[in-house]
Fold each of these.
Amino acid sequence: MELLGLIGYGLSCLAYLIFFLLLLASRQQSLSGTLTRVLGAVLCISALISCWQLYQGFSLLYVLYFEGVKNFLVTILILGVKLRSPSFKELIRHKETHQYLAVVTVLVFVSAFSIVTRQNFVWVFISFMALNLWPLVLLEQVFRNAQKRARWAVWPFVFGLGSMLVFDFVIFAQGALINQLDFNFWYLRGYLSAAMMPFILLSSKRIKNWSSDLFVSRDVVFYSSILMLSGAYLLLLALAGYVIRFLDGQWSELLSIAFMCLGLLVLFAVLFTQNFRNRIRVFISKHFFANRYDYRLEWLNLIAALERDNSQDIYESACNAISEVLQLDGCIYLQLNNVSRLEVMNFGQLKPDARSREQLDGLVSYFQTQNWIIDLAEFQVSPDIYKGLQLDEAPLINDNIEILVPVNFQQQLTGVFAMTRPANKGLLNWEDRDFVFALTKQLGNYLSLQEIQQQLSQTQQFAVFHRMSAFVLHDLKNIQAQLSLINANAEHHKGNPEFIDDVFDTVESASLRLQKVVRQLANKSMEKIKEPKQQVEIKSLLQDAIKLANMNRPQVILDCQPGLYVYADRERFAGVMMHLIENAQQASNPQDSVQLIGKKQENRLILSIRDKGCGMTQSFIRDKLFTPFSTTKGNAGMGIGVYEARQFFEENSGLMSVQSDVGKGTTFTIEMSLSEYQEIGYNNHGKIINC
């Protein structure tokens, strides 16, 4: 047998010498190519040392030292291929390389301590098992991470190195169990190593830069984890076998083998149990892997689907969007109403009958307590998963309703999405459920916000109506006040011709203003109808306003320069000035007077309304004076007169300011741009011209 081993290692030495020379001639400059050439040299030297040990008979420990170096280089090479490191410096800096170096350091110290203190090789064999398990896991990851077009180049490399590593793992596992190597296997290592050389050489030629196209796969992590757990379990078995042998003396070898066989049976039973494999897969997917769904892209797809939908029905839009993203054949939304029943908001392709609606109404309490997606196919197979759910699923399935998803807004159940099964999906797994929950959560928020927007729009429409009513009521109030003044003074002045003329002027003004009110109501707009602007002489406008105002006390004293003109709506201007004068009169004592002053300052008209009344606080002026529906008159005032006045002057490029002291009086100051006087006439066609 020793001669057979000598020939095998000799062949291996010759094979890897040829391997090294061929790679040296290829002159690959990548890190992995360099490491492969070094590995070829080390494999050649390792076979030479093993051959020399068999010929000279010196200690096998020296061979094991070089086997450790070979194993180290194999692992570094596989790490370089997996991590695609461009340089040795980058490879050494990587976190995974640091982890491997730390483990190697610990195993070296453990092995050295075991040999020095006890001359015991069990820990050496266990260390070699661990060192062979690590590159095996890496090889499995490299192969499964490779794209399909790259696997044809990778598989010879994986097969060649993997075969040698598995063979060594079995040898050292048996050595750890019985505290010695089986030399029958040891002599065969040379032949296996030589036979694997063509496979490694083939991959070195197929992969030009030793950097295959890799991607991260869930199955890779799963199978790698299974392989790692299996290797760790075998290490524990080997350690337990050593303990049994150490404790039981002469029966130790038999007990160790029996224990090893029993342990392997347990391992195979566990690994082939579907429930155990599913638990590992879910645990890995949740904690060690990215989500299957790219939520950023799916969120953008959902937004795009909502934007593309032309339906005016928000519920139809939401169902169309989720149907597009999940590739559904049908979807409906059922909203929870005030009597805790689910009301169908859109039918589409799903039309639940009375029996289905009865079953859906019975799910309200379940969704309020559990908030869990119901997969009716899963419920048929495993009803125990849905604890506390009482449901006759047959009517729903007959109506093509297969999945029910609760929708919550602010932690309250608002509705349910009922849908068909997504395309190419079996029973929903945990990740499918998370994804569907995320979509329906966003759509639930969308529906709730759209419903709030509709309610707000209706509220705004009512607010527009109330505001229009307030302006109309304010105008009617002013007209009623003018007509009341006529009645109040008719008894004393009905024989006065000037009074009669004023009455007709007032009635005409009231009639015009009533016409505007009627047009305002017919227009159904909150904005006041704007009349065409005209040239207004300020003094005459103020005189007309004072005639009406002086029917009450205190009297208004006018001091205005003649010949001052502005462009404005005369009727609105007169109404605004009348309101400001009335406010000043109402704030003053009857024995006092109100001053109305108009003057020119550069090219600006300055109007001042001064009273000696009660005044206003600065906080009221700042916060409430120009705010609609704020008044100091109680129920007697509307609180929109001053707001309307400022709005009028701002529309005509003017300003209105207020100065007031409590107990001393108030001054309203108005500034407007003056216009040059232009006489207005008519041409032969009846159109207005400037003369």
Note: The mean pLDDT is 75.
Amino acid sequence: MAGPVHYEVYVRKTAPAPWSLQMATEDRAHAIQSAEELLADNRAAAVRVTKETLDPETMEFNSVTVLTRGAPEVARKRVVADDQSGPRCGSPEDLYAATARETIGRVLEDWLKRQGVTAFELLHRPDLAELLDAAGIELQHAVQKVAVPESQAVGQPVHDLVRHYQRLADATIGRLVSAGRKNRFPDLAHHSLADLAHRLDGQPERAFIMGGVIAGALKGVRGGRARLERLMDLAERAPMEGPPRALVLVAIEQLLCEMLAARTSLAEVLGPSLDQGASLAAVVRMVAPREVDMLVRQDPKMALQVPVVDGPAARLGARLEAGEFPLLSAALARMVLRELMSPRRLRPNDAAGEIYILRALAMSLTATAGRLLTLEEVQSAFNERSKSLVTADFVAAYVKSCTTVLCEAESLTRLCENVTGLANKRSAARWLSACVGSLRFETEMRGQGATQTAAQKLGVLAGLQRSIRACGLTERDEAEIVTAIGTVGGAVEADARIVAMLARSPAPLTQKLSVLLRLAAGETAPLGPAADRAKAEAVKLFRAPESRAALSAAPEALAPLRSLMQAAGLAA
């Protein structure tokens, strides 16, 4: 037989909150009424009434839900498995991994910036550890920044993770301070770096001790340029080969990766006067000096866009070129890609300059493709950057300095040439199509008071057409833009009656044919009505009996015209 029965009322204050017991009673009606009142008075987001029956044999309650009202319960899924839900760092050694150092650098960014050091130095210098331990609030906030998101990710209580990471931080600081008091980090002022590396070879904590030696050598050195100079001096003092050399260079590389990841340090190393685009170009030149120097020799204009790397940055570039510090090379190359894919302008106050520096970066990174980055990664980054070049704000800034609509058309043509990606090409083509198809473009080109003659205007339009064909636009966009320019060119020629005047001119036959064929071939006039009229007039001249007689009498006069006839689509 069933044992005693009672009813329990549970509530959830908010939809994602857990159930909590509100009351218990032996009266079913009273339990249900109380639950309804709690919900009606907005004292709970949801209510539930359960019937609890005691089993006399097991002395356990069997629960049956009688009523559920209110917001549905939010299903909570564990992000990780139960056997992997522990803290991500369990011992002081775990904090020295690259991902852990990156996290430390992020949560202690302001403190590290004030001290002018990196996370690597913090983990290897006893004086910095004691300084951070004395600043209890800084360390406490850093622990909370790590524990709160990890708690949400793995489902563990925040307080448990805070206590764990606080103990871990205390143990790490204690270990580092103890090592300093035992003089486990020799001072390079009294010891040879190469000898230390050879003595540490094979010891279990050789990486920890060498890291402390390298970090200690930077004590008191402020500024990215001076710190890089000191690290390059240490690299020169490293053993010549073998594991001892790797022991020194690995520690230096880890410190360099963190130091150059900060924009302030990178600006100090390369020069504070460089804008974002020039800084990225300098980084590429530092990482790949051989490829960039080759491009500069081939195209001297590149020298105007890519700054010269000198001083400690040049020393680092020479080591990177020799194959040392491969992780640093990859990190710097990917940093350039991240900046290219970000919305940050390369040259905020110079839209045209941004096109030029972007072209220089594209050539430089493409030349290094396969060694540092894949060609697909480079193309993807420039496709992403090109999206910002076809926005209304950028295009308005880009053509702001143009005083004529022809200048705008030429600028937009350069934009079409330099953006990458099919969608971006289409967007740039729409800007150009709107420009050359506008009434303002036709009015300006046909204007009587212009400084250019009609023949000069036709030549400019022909050159614009050729530039557009070299932009790599889709057939539809290219045909639309070329046709619009050809239509304007036809109107300009019709106003000036250039073809008709040539046909009636007393000039020699071969000279008239040469000029007409150049117009028909699109060299001195845009393809379209103007070129078609010139072609028709040239055919008429060729068919005239007196012309045929003159050309037959002097066949050598026809030889120079053969290439023009082929270009104009006439049989030679």
Note: The mean pLDDT is 86.
Amino acid sequence: MDFFAEQARVRESTRILVLLFIAAVLAIVAAVDMLVLLVVGPWVKATHASLLTISTIAVLGLIAGCAAYRISSLSGGGKAVAEDVGGELVPPDTQDPALRQLRNVIEEVAIASGTPVPDIYLLPDEPGINAFAAGYSPSDAAICVTQGCLDNLTRDELQGVIAHEFSHVLNGDMRLNIRLMGLLFGIMALSIIGRQMTWSRGNIGIWNSEDDRNRPSAWFLVGIALMAIGSIGHFFGRLIQAAVARSRETLADASAVQFTRQTSGIAGALKKIAVLAEGSRLQVTNRHEIAHMMLGDVDHFSAWFATHPPLMARIRLLEPYFREQQLEQLKTKVQASSAKHNDDAQAAAPRELPPLQWPGQVVGAAAVAAQVAATPQAAQATEAAPNVTISSREIFTRLREAVRQPESALAISLVLATSRHAELQARQARVVANAFGDDVQSAVGEFATEVNALPPTSHMPLLSLAFPALKQLPQGRQQTLLETLDGVVSIDPQVGLDDYCLVRLLRMHLLEACKPRSAPVDGQKKLPACRDSVSLVCAVVATYGASDDAAARRAWLLAMNQAFPGAAATWQTLPLEWQAHFDRALDDLDRLMPAAKEIVIQSLLSAIRADGVVTPAESELLRVICASLHCPVPAQAGV
């Protein structure tokens, strides 16, 4: 999956959306103007031009106001969208095996993709197989699945569905989806108003006698007229959804294969949608409003208005030799398997579900725990408590459970931001105690031994797991956390790279989660305007990834030649307190247009590959840079 090509496609979708929206608005305005001339014109002395001006302004104001209201109602981001359609938050401490499996899969896909764990929602009354991702950015994303996914999909198939949704998170589709919900509400407003007027007949006291009730009223007729005009908005709304959604869903299927490295998962989910009676249909009343962001069609649509390609077409793209006749065989197997599953579920006791393993990637709680199974830090932690034998797997498992609670996640996040140097820890402890009190500082001390027993490579996954709980903290406490992080880091003017990376990510994600709509959008700057920022970022990566100055200069020159071919380049010496300069450089590069960001990322890859070795420092830096530029870590990066 080429993220930057996807960004170009999203911009093309946006242009199509704008053109269709303008066409819808013009058609609605023209229809209302004609109605005003026919109904009001003969009875009013004003000129036709004046009437048309008033009606046009009124319609435009209504559409704009309704669209703005709807977008504002979804300003909470992914959480607001999920709750708007009846989604129920999956608690972090759920004991339901199916929900624990869902949470486990989502957490591991998030870690593998280098994004914070999203909020997890369930549509419990929906038997169809469907899912969606919503939000303005990965920091406020929510993934919502139907009960049908849990009841009918295997682990691999659920993994494929979740990977499909994560492609929307990474590709920036979610912001477009929320905007589209607002625009659709605006152009369908007249239809909604007309429907309410016709339904309210007889309940608003506008008739004077029983005879009046038996005759069509002006109110009722106006409602019918508005519904007829609103059908224009409905027509264009469905066209907009279809135009924006179809190609994205096909590409998301391909992305799911890339993420999971096998086709059976997402293909199996699509096949089950095809053979089950419920398919992917939804029952929620506002299902058409979210049709463009779902995994499958929420209802029966004609070919013109279908938001997704035909199921068989999607399946054959994944498995070219699959034939429709095979669906009947699959249907029989699914029905038999479903009956056996129900019998087993009634007899089986709740059990711990095994974590998801992805080929070739170190992801998830169990995989990280396995990676640290023999670390010296873990051995030291065990020696410190000789009467208790604690494996590193148990340490990570305990911390994984702890970060699912807001206060524990707060304490562990502060541990991750604290220096490992003893001379700085006492000063940083005073900063934490002054901000949060002795109780939090005591918790920080209790968790410090366990966190420090894990290798640095497990810290970012732990932070990703902690993020949903941190978002549950009161806003004032989140702000205190942000200020404390700044205070802890500023104590050491030469803060360590690990600490810098963790604090940078945590601050960025928390700020975007607090104000979802303020998340950055695609920039417009061109690469030459950011040459100094590119030079500094490449210098940081080259310096921390090289074994000596000569290797660093060579890696930096490779990166600069990739970004600016043929241009003269002078070695960028890092300032003593490089972190503040690096922050400003990343913010500057985030304002680049997507094509320029691609060049920057490829240049950084050149620097990383200069010595043929990907160090942990290079891996962490690349993840932080990609997150700051709001693009995923390249699949070929090897990190």
Note: The CA atoms of residues 149 and 200 lie 39 Å apart.
Amino acid sequence: MKLTKHISILFLVLATSIASAQVKFEAKVSKKKLGVNERLRIDFEMNQDGDNFVPPSFKDFTVVGGPNTSLMNSYANGKKTYSKTYSYFLAPKKRGTFTIKQATIEIDGETYKTFPITVTVTAAVDRPNGAPDASDIASDNIHLVAEVSNSNPYLNEAITVVYKLYVSKETGVSGWSEKDSPRYNDFWNQNIEVKGFPTQRGQYKGEDYRYVVVRKTVLYPQKTGKLKLEPLVLEVMVEVPTGRANIFGQQMMTQVPQTVTAGSRTINVKQLPEEGKPSDFKGAVGDFDFNITTTKTQLNATESLQAKVEVTGKGNLKLFELPKLTVPSSLEVYEPEHKENVRTNLSGMRGSISDTYTLVPQYRGKYPVPTISFSYFDLKTESYKRITSDEIVIDVLEGPTAANNSENATVANTKQTVTSNNNTFAFIKTSSNWVSTLNQPFFKSTGFWSMLLLPFLAIPLAIVIRRKKDERDADVTGNRIRKADRLAKKYLGAAKKALGQKEAFYEALERALHNYLKAKLNIETSDFNKEKIENLLGERQIEENVVSDFISILENCELARYTPITQVTMQNDYDKAAKTISLIDKQMR
């Protein structure tokens, strides 16, 4: 009996030891000695799935990636193998010797811990010691390049910047996001939509690579001299080989975050030549056609017609003003309606812009519309060109004749005889038709009855007015709308007075928007930034499209310092600002 008892205890101990040996939870690092400019990878591996994983604090490192989780199931000789790994990528904060403490996890109700690992951080190194880790492989096999179509353009000449992400055949990319976007100061810019991100083949420094175009931007420089393009910075999730294969012999990959930048570029912008510059040149650069057309050339007085001043072609269409239409004073002319039909692709802007004037003749006659000239700088010939419109004659068939119409009025040379009148004061009346009112008593007269009944008639009128006032006071929505409109007019009054003066208008508009936010959100001008404004307005339950419109108006105020702005654009920005302020005040909670 005693022997049997000892054998039972021995089997129990062995079973417990075997069960304990089956669970593995350990920490592994990519290297134990690294430079302060290198990254360290640490993996926490287990052979059974667990819960409540708690990593160490990593207080002496900055976590630049992770945790990334990977699973592996394999079968060999009928035996199943399971592996689960939590991976972190660490950047040391300083030189020294540091200990990464224990991580813990619960597996089948038991708590397991890893052993602490000691790592030595040395001075910065040119290349990692030993075999490269995943981060090093990623940095060597992925590159972001900014390809500029022309680094020496003229002022207002279109250039394109295409950002390409090159990836070697040995690695892959599972996604990216913009960490820092260039602001393109001193450039008018527009992004071109990239659809699908198709993979293409190309070469990077003479080696075969795959690449995707991640961004396309068209730029028009607004200043001369050396202008710097800020870099685009991407955060990319890179897939790199681990050096291990799965049960099918395929290379196993692991993911590592990588920050890549295209680097800054310098654009040397040339001044347009002064030699041969026309006096009416307004900054148009490209290849254009110019024309003036009217909807009719014959009509009657007080009827209307439209005259269109139009420029078509390729160039900086949105960045210059059209020539003004001049007409005879006998034609009443209204403010033009500005239209833009412009498409922007990698070659720049193409399409048409026009001002359409409404003309109303007042008198009969023939009225010539003087010719207008349009000048532009032709990039192909690097010279200025001028296009002059044809003269248009408007024939007004019917209507009154103008007294000073030189084409219809004739001057009579015959003299008329002046006849004298002996009664010099004939225009003064010497008799009157006075009627006495003394015999008409006031009592029972029309005035008497009117004054007597007036108070009684005023009572129902006062009741109606009071009811209308009560209804108006009870109309919370209507009062909010009226108050919002008054606020918009109050804050935008100075901007409206400055319409037509670009600098003064946009300064006043920006000040109005800032003052409005200060009044409604209780924040100072020094605290203004787009993110904070979006957050504060979002907290007040303002709709996203209204917040987006408000931010776009602020951006237009900044952009106006570097780009030509038309009267129509200023009016549109003013109207949009008034509408947006009104909507914010209505929706604010």
Note: Residues 13-20, 405-427 have pLDDT under 50 and may be disordered.
